[in-house]
Amino acid sequence: MKLFDVYPINNIEIVKGQGSLVWDKNGQEYLDLYGGHAVISVGHTHPHYVNRLTDQLNKLGFYSNSIEIPLQIELAEKLGKVSGREDYQLFLISSGAEAIENALKLASFYNERKKIISFTGAFHGRTSLAVAVTNNPKLVAPVNENENVIFLPHNDEAALEKAFAESGNEICAVIIEGIQGVGGIKVASESFLQKIRSLCDQYNSVFIADSVQCGYGRSGKFYSQDYAGVDADIYTMAKGMGNGFPIAGISIAPKFKAWHYMLGTTFGGNHLACAAGLAVLEVMEQENLMQNAAEVGSYLLTELKKFDRIKEVRGRGLMIGIDLPDELSHVKKELLFKHHIFTGEAKPNVIRLLPALNLSKAHADRFLEAFSQELKAESLKQRATA
Ligand SMILES: Cc1ncc(COP(=O)(O)O)c(C=O)c1O
Predict the structure, then answer these.
(1) What is the best residue among 124, 225, 319, 350 to mutate for testing ligand 1's pocket, by most ligand atoms within 8 Å of CB?
(2) Residue 369 has pLDDT above 80, yes or no
(3) Beta bridge partners of 352
(4) Is the CB of 123 under 6 A from ligand 1?
(5) N or C end: fewer C-beta atoms under 10 angstroms in the chain?
(6) Do 370 and 222 share a domain, yes or no?
(7) Could you say which of 270, 286, 302 is where a domain stops?
(8) Is residue 142, in this structure, part of any structural domain at all?
(9) CA of 186 to the centre of ligand 1 (A)
(10) Is residue 243 within 8 Å of residue 49, measured between CB atoms?
(11) CATH number of residue 261's parent domain
(12) What pLDDT was estimated at residue 146?
């Protein structure tokens, strides 16, 4: 059997990782500022994480949600504390798209409505409803087309007010990433998030904060939407939650009441997944990772803003987008193959930095030096041809 060829891949095989470094099969070291798409939160093979998972695996790896799993309660309590939402409720699943599906389903059970507001540039996953609220028609198969989804311009308060004025009593939910990831690191403005909160309150619609990529401390706050000083009704989370182990969750406001079989999953909340989730939160607390993300992130943002050839630098904490002009579109490849630095990307020319939350300043400097060399090389090339 062959693999179904859906991913354009780099010709590199990574066999080992430690912290923010990874090594390929030839022993070449790379600086990892991509984290396998914002997944590595406490660093590769963090000793506490490895020990916690190994211990759990030696005891019991999996059992389903038909028995008591005290690890789930421990995880819910810790997550409530670290996220500052101790009165919220946790439902555990295994991927980001699954978190989105369940958040939207829960919202619809709650107010018995169907219409969802999403925004230009939004990415919420690839399963049926998640892809329907994703603003990329190329990803939507005919069976996923959904006439209940309304796309509005991002950060446009007037358009949002108009949509609510026209059909507010039909709006089930508004879903928004605090910082758009796939959309190119676009930060939702604080006043836009506040407007969503007040309109959802007014019309009894559900505010869903998609924190799958921008959450879990990456922005320097637990949820990036926290910068706006408002609470969402449901937070979705995944990627950094298990540092590579597939675990996801939705954090649900107290006003939502559960009933048996309302939501469900086979794998979600299993013993090994909970051990991974707990290990991540423990490291985040012990090593003050949110503070580190805020500090090293703001250092990177400040330094990057000094380069005059960049179109724009956007982001918060360790979720940074470097928007490059066309003539610098090759820089991402040079960073990988010449300087051995992994970064992410967004179309057309945005370099995305999504490193582990314990990225050191020295590693940030290593990136800045390589980046500066590439920009200088391009300037020299342009002067020679002028
Ligand atoms: C903001 C956001 N929501 C949802 C998802 C879907 O997550 P998953 O790929 O785990 O299904 C992603 C994935 O990139 C994402 O960035």
Answers:
(1) 124
(2) yes
(3) 321, 344
(4) yes
(5) N
(6) no
(7) 286
(8) yes
(9) 15
(10) yes
(11) 3.40.640.10
(12) 95
Q: Which domain holds residue 309?
A: 14-45+289-385
The verdict on the CB of residue 270 being under 6 Å from ligand 1 is no
pLDDT at 378: 78
CB-CB contact of 240 with 359 (8 Å): no
Residue 59 CA to ligand 1 centre (angstroms): 31
CA–centroid distance, 288 to ligand 1, in Å, is: 25
- Report yes or no on 282 lying in a domain: yes
Q: Is the CB of 175 under 6 A from ligand 1?
A: no
Number of domains in the chain: 2
pTM > 0.85: yes or no: yes
Ligand 1 atom with the smallest distance to the CA of 127 is 11
Residue 366 is predicted with a pLDDT of: 98
* Residue 297 and residue 265 share a domain: no
Instruction: Check if 358 has its Cβ closer than 6 Å to any atom of ligand 1.
Output: no
Residue 362 lies in a domain: yes
